[in-house]
Specification:
About 0% of the residues lie in helices and about 50% in strands. It has no helices and two strands.
Length: about 45
Amino acid sequence: MSGDHGGPHLAFHAELPTSGNWRLFLQFRTGGTLHTAALTLRVG
């Protein structure tokens, strides 16, 4: 997404090699400020 007008929804596809808990980190920039969000996925 380019510009400062992204939406409130985010979709992505990930193929993880094994079952278990996976920690993902999403970085995005708004208004010149970099944000990092941590997500935990339970796979399996």
